[in-house]
Structures are given as structure tokens and as C-alpha cells.
Amino acid sequence: MDNNNFEDWGRKLSGLLPESASQMKQDIERILNFL
User: For 18, phi and psi rounded to 5 degrees?
Assistant: First the structure.
């Protein structure tokens, strides 16, 4: 999986859901660390 795509997706999602963006970022980082 391409890390840049993940970051770009995260930015787009944070633009749509600013309140949950930090939680989503933490979840994504956990997934990436697990992989």
C-alpha cells in the first residue's frame, strides 16, 4: 500500500470530518504500524 495515498486520503477525510480527523489519523497510524 502506498503511504502517500493514505496521507492524501486522510487529508480529504479530515476536510469532510474535522471533528473525527484526529481519531481517524490515530487509527490509520495503528493500522500502518501493525502492517
Answer: -60, -35
